[in-house]
Specification:
28 helices; mainly alpha; 8 strands; 677 residues; binds iron/sulfur cluster; 54% helix; elongated; Fumarate Reductase Iron-sulfur Protein, Chain B, domain 2
Length: 677
C-alpha cells in the first residue's frame, strides 16, 4: 500500500470509528427509554418514508424553503455515493463503482455532477436567507444553533464545490496525461465539471500544476467530508441521519389519540414521565430528529400569544437535557438536572391546548403532544400538582360527571324548549329501542351551557325533520373523559370511560352522533383501546349526508358573508375539513370567506387539552382573541364553527373585544336550521 493510500486508510477508518463511537452513545441513550412497539405495519411506514422523506411532501408546502431543501436532500444522496467512490479509491487505487451496469453508473455520475451545482446554489441561497432575510421562525434560535447552522451549510458548500473542482482538474489532467482515469468517457455526462475544466484558469495550467490542484481538491474534499461526519453527532443537523427513522417510526394513529396508560400493571408505581428514562425510546429519538426549523412555532397558539410553551424549544430543551444526562443514563449516577421544573418548566407543560398544529407542521414528524400529556400525568398522579382551577374541575367530574358540578337531573333540560319530545333510551321499551339507529351524545357543553344548548336544539330539530331515528341518554349521559385525560388525570379519565362504555353496552349502542369534536375524537380514537368500538359521526358530516341524500332540503338563501373556524379536533386530528364547508356552500347567496389560517393550518381557539377549564393567565393575549381578530379581518358578519368549545371561547372573545354587534358566533347547525325552514 502506497503512503498516500495508508494515510487515507488511517484517516477514514479513524473518522468512521469516532463517528460510530459517538453515534452509538447517542443510540444507547435513547435505548434507555421505555419500550414501545413501532415495528407494526411496515408497508404503511415505508410509504410514509417514501412520501415524506424522499418526496419531501411536508417541506414542499413552503415553496422557497421546500424546493431548496428538496434539492439539497437529493443532491446529498448522489454526492454521498460519489464520495464513497472517492474515499475507497483513495485506499484502493483504481477502485470505481463502474461495476454497476453502465447506465446506472453514468446516471449516478451525471446526477452527482448536476446536483453539486444545484446544491451549491441552494446553499448560497440558504446562507443569504439566514443572514439577510432572517426568517421569523428561526429568529429566536440561540446563537449556538445559528452558528451550528452556518457551520453545517458552509461544510456542505465545501463538499460540493471541492467535488466539482476536483472533477474539473482531474478531467483536464487526464486529458493532458493519460496516466489516471477513473471515469473513462464519463466526463461527457458530467457537464458542470467539464465546463469548469474549460475555464481559462484551468486550461492554461501545466500538467504538474493540474496534478497539484487535482490532489489539493481531493484532499480538501476528503478533509471536509470527514470533518462533517465527525461534527454531525454534536450538531442539530443530526437530523440528516435521524429524520428518516423518525418518520418511519412515527405513530400511525390519529394525532388526536392519547395512548392508554396501564394503571394496573403489577409492581408499577410510577405513572407518566418525571425523568428522561420514563419517556419511550421513540420520544427520545424525536429530540435527535429536530432541526430547530421553527415550523412548529408558526401555528402554535401558545407561541403566538406569548406563553411559556414554544414547541420548538420544548424539543430542543429535551435534547439538551438528554445530552446533559446521557452519561448518567449509561452509568446510573445521580441526576444533576431535573426534567420537570429544570429542563422543562411546569408552565410549558400546562400551556398546551393539544391542538396538533406543531405535529402537522413538523417535517420530521415529531410528536409533541404525547410528551406533554405524559409529563402532565406525572405532575397530577405522582406529585398532585395542578394549575389553579383544576382541582375543582376534577372534583366536579368525580361527583357530578360534568365540569361545572351541575346536577345530573338537569342534563336533558335543554330539550324542554323543543316542540317535540326527544326520545330518551331509558324511557323507551325494548321494541322501541330496537328501532333507534343512532345515539345522539350531546356532551356536557351541549347539555348544560345555555349558548350551546341552542346548538343541541337546532341539531335535534334537523334530525327530527329528516326522520332520523335517534335517542339521547338523558340523565344517564356522563362526560366521556376527554378533558380529565388531557389534563393528566388518567385515573379519573379511565373510570369515566368505563362508566360511559357500560351505559353504551346497556343499550347496545352501535352508532353515535356527536356535536362536539372532542366527544367525537375520544369515542372514535380512544374508546377502541378500552374495547369499545362504535361508528362515530360528527354532526356536520351527518347533516351534509342528509342534504346530499335530500332528506333535508334548504328552503331559502342567506345573503351574508360568513367565515368558518376549524376545530382542531374535527379538522387537524380527524381530517374533517370539508363537510362543514360543504353545508355552508350549499346555502344559496351565502358567501364563504376563509381566514388565512385554515384547515390543516387552522388556528386553535384555546380550549383543547383541558384548557377550557383552566384560567388563561399567561401570555400577552388570549388565544381566542387572536383567533377572533383574524375572523374580524375577513369583514364578515358571522363566524361559523362546529364545536361547542370553540363557541364558548370565540363568543367570550367577542365580549372581551366588545364586538358582539359586529360579528356573531354561530354553529353550522344553527345556520342550516335557519334555512331549512
Ligand atoms: S419540532 Fe419539527 S417543526 Fe419544530 S423545530 Fe423541530 S423539526 Fe422543526
Ligand atoms: S399542540 Fe398546539 S398548543 Fe400544544 S405545542 Fe403543539 S401547536 Fe402548541
Amino acid at each position: 500500500m502506497a503512503t498516500k493510500n495508508l494515510i487515507v486508510f488511517i484517516l477514514v477508518t479513524g473518522s468512521c470509528a469516532s463517528f460510530f463511537f459517538f453515534m452509538s452513545k447517542r443510540i444507547r441513550w435513547i435505548l434507555k427509554g421505555t419500550k414501545e412497539n413501532r415495528f407494526d405495519h411496515i408497508g404503511l411506514r415505508l410509504k410514509k418514508v417514501l412520501v415524506n422523506v424522499f418526496g419531501q411532501k411536508r417541506l414542499l408546502k413552503e415553496k422557497v424553503a421546500g424546493v431548496m431543501h428538496f434539492f439539497i436532500f437529493w443532491g446529498f444522496i448522489f454526492i454521498t455515493i460519489g464520495t464513497i467512490e472517492i474515499l475507497v479509491n483513495g485506499i484502493v487505487p483504481g477502485f470505481s463503482l463502474n461495476f454497476f451496469p453502465s447506465f446506472i453508473y453514468s446516471t449516478i455520475k451525471g446526477f452527482e455532477d448536476l446536483f453539486s451545482l444545484i446544491v451549491a446554489i441552494a446553499i448560497l441561497f440558504a446562507l443569504f436567507r439566514r443572514l439577510v432575510i432572517k426568517p421569523k421562525r428561526m429568529a429566536d434560535n440561540p446563537l449556538s444553533a445559528k452558528f451550528d447552522a452556518l457551520l453545517i451549510l458552509s461544510l456542505i458548500f465545501g463538499v460540493v464545490s471541492t467535488n466539482l473542482l476536483l472533477h474539473a482538474f482531474e478531467y483536464q489532467y487526464v486529458s493532458q496525461s493519460i496516466t489516471e482515469n477513473r471515469y473513462g468517457a464519463l466526463f461527457v455526462l458530467m457537464p458542470i465539471s467539464y465546463s469548469i475544466s474549460k475555464l481559462p484558469f484551468i486550461l492554461n495550467l501545466s500538467v504538474e500544476q493540474l496534478h497539484f490542484y487535482k490532489d489539493f481538491f481531493w484532499w480538501a474534499h476528503v478533509g471536509i467530508i470527514l470533518s462533517f461526519l465527525n461534527y454531525l453527532p454534536f450538531s442539530k443537523h443530526l437530523h440528516i441521519m435521524m429524520a428518516l427513522p423518525n418518520v418511519f417510526f412515527n405513530t400511525l394513529n390519529s394525532t388526536g389519540k392519547i395512548a392508554k396508560l396501564n394503571l394496573e400493571e403489577e409492581g408499577v408505581e410510577k405513572f407518566g414521565v418525571g425523568t428522561l428514562e420514563d419517556f419511550s425510546w421513540k420520544d427520545l429519538l424525536d429530540t435527535y430528529a429536530c432541526t430547530e426549523c421553527g415550523r412548529c412555532n408558526v401555528y402554535c397558539p401558545t407561541f403566538n400569544t406569548g406563553k411559556d410553551l414554544k414547541p420548538k424549544s420544548l424539543i430542543a430543551d429535551l435534547r439538551h437535557h438528554l445530552y446533559h444526562e446521557g452519561k448518567r443514563l449509561l452509568n446510573g449516577t445521580e441526576s444533576t438536572q431535573k426534567l420537570i421544573g429544570g429542563a422543562i418548566s411546569e408552565n410549558t407543560i400546562w400551556d398546551c391546548t393539544t391542538c396538533g398544529a406543531c405535529q402537522e407542521a413538523c417535517p420530521v414528524f415529531i410528536e409533541h403532544i404525547p410528551k406533554i400529556i405524559d409529563m402532565r400525568r406525572h405532575l397530577v398522579l405522582m406529585e398532585g400538582k395542578m394549575e389553579p382551577g383544576m382541582q375543582e374541575f376534577f372534583n366536579n367530574m368525580e361527583n357530578y360527571s360534568n365540569p361545572w358540578g351541575l346536577p345530573q337531573n338537569k342534563r336533558d333540560a335543554w330539550t324542554q324548549e323543543l316542540s317535540f319530545k326527544v326520545p330518551v333510551f331509558s324511557e323507551l321499551s325494548e321494541p322501541e329501542r330496537k328501532k333507534i339507529e343512532y345515539l345522539y351524545f350531546v356532551g356536557c357543553s351541549g347539555s348544560y351551557d345555555e349558548r350551546n344548548q341552542k346548538t343541541s336544539r337546532a341539531f335535534a330539530r334537523l334530525l327530527n325533520k329528516a326522520h332520523v331515528t335517534f335517542a339521547i341518554l338523558g340523565k344517564e349521559e356522563k362526560c366521556n373523559g376527554d378533558p380529565s385525560r388531557r389534563l393528566g388525570n388518567e385515573y379519573l379519565a379511565q373510570s369515566q370511560i368505563q362508566e360511559v362504555s357500560k351505559t353504551f353496552q346497556k343499550y347496545n349502542i352501535k352508532k353515535i352522533l356527536t356535536q362536539c369534536p372532542h366527544c367525537f375524537n375520544t369515542f372514535k380514537n380512544e374508546y377502541p383501546e378500552f374495547g369499545s368500538n362504535y361508528e362515530v359521526i360528527h354532526h356536520t358530516t351527518f347533516l351534509n349526508q342528509l342534504l346530499e341524500e335530500e332528506k333535508l332540503k334548504i328552503k331559502k338563501g342567506l345573503k351574508e358573508k360568513i367565515t368558518f373556524h376549524d376545530s382542531c379536533y374535527l379538522g387537524r386530528h380527524n381530517q374533517e375539513y370539508e363537510s362543514p364547508r360543504a353545508i355552508l356552500k350549499k346555502i344559496p347567496d351565502l358567501e364563504l370567506s376563509e381566514m388565512p389560517r385554515r384547515k390543516e393550518n387552522g388556528f386553535c381557539c384555546g380550549a383543547g387539552g383541558g384548557r377550557m377549564w383552566v384560567e388563561e393567565s399567561r401570555g400577552h393575549k388570549r388565544i381566542s382573541v387572536e383567533r377572533l381578530e383574524e375572523a374580524l379581518e375577513t369583514k364578515t358578519q358571522k363566524v361559523a364553527m362546529a364545536c361547542p368549545y370553540c363557541m364558548t371561547m370565540l363568543e367570550d372573545a367577542t365580549k372581551v373585544k366588545q364586538v358582539e354587534k359586529e360579528i356573531q358566533t354561530l354553529d353550522v347547525v344553527e345556520i342550516l336550521d335557519s334555512v331549512v325552514g
